[in-house]
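Protein modeling request. Please complete all fields; requests missing the sequence field cannot be processed.
Requester role: graduate student
Desired output: 3D structure, token encoding
Chains: 1
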Amino acid sequence: MVRFISCDWGTSSFRLRLIDTADLKVVGEERNQRGISVVYRQFLELKEKSPSIRESFYKQVISEGVEALEKSCKGDLSGLMIICSGMVTSSIGLREVPFTPLPFDVSGKNLGMDFIGASVDFGHPLLLLSGLRSDTDVMRGEESELVGVIQMLDDFSGEGLFILPGTHSKHVRVTGYQVSEFTTFMTGEFFDLLCQQSILKDSISSDDTFDFTRSGESFRSGVKAGLSGSLLSQAFLVRTRVLFGKANKTDNYHYLSGLLIGNELKELTNSGNLPIYLCCTSHLEAQYRLALKTLGIDVMIIPAATMDQAVVRGQFKIYNQNLNHERSIFLGSF
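Delivered output (334 residues):
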């Protein structure tokens, strides 16, 4: 049975999945919080910081993940190809791979990559997938998700605006089956900063359970506020709402979330006639769906279960588009 290991290595998370190539089903999974930023800080604490030491250090993190994956799958994964996307190819990753410039074909056929063969110390060949860059913006990881999502859209016409929410949300414009432009919104990061380090932190109470009945009205109010005026001015209202007894701290938490998401989504008024796809993981789907409904914007929802498979399908599609020789070397079997 031919298999490979999918590595999705983000800024704050690390995820390995064992994949059966016959149907791209997940056989096993290992995930933890050893994201690239944590690993890079640990690397900087070493006395020697040469490129070779850096690669060995990062490979050791992967090896530990593979060992945990072997235990959960109860099988030997020796020699399997590991396809990596995300921040692993960034300036603070295992090895920096230059960004692929736009336009980018959504089949993945022109994505840059690097290959590291197996060695005595690290028995897995590594395929490192690049990110994308425009004249003003960059992404790493979302391009693989996008390729995977589009492969699962039976009726995709080659045109669309894809919203990928997250710490750094991406709005990706596809025309003629090519990514023509994209924009990054620091929505999630700004939300965390305001909640944890700003003067507003004393005016909110964290509440990660989003309920339409209990939280919806405060959230919708924030979304509407995010459409008008200056975001810097509107954000201070989070403080005065509590000072003037207009809201409690839990309501304010959802108001601030709505404010930032609404400010992000107001840019969709410039989307023209492109169909809009919301590509959302489960923990943000309810908020973005309600925000879009509040703004009267029609979108097609890509379910969270589909998004969970997107990286794997994207990585495999990109691999097949770019490496058509000696597949058995890259995708070992056991």
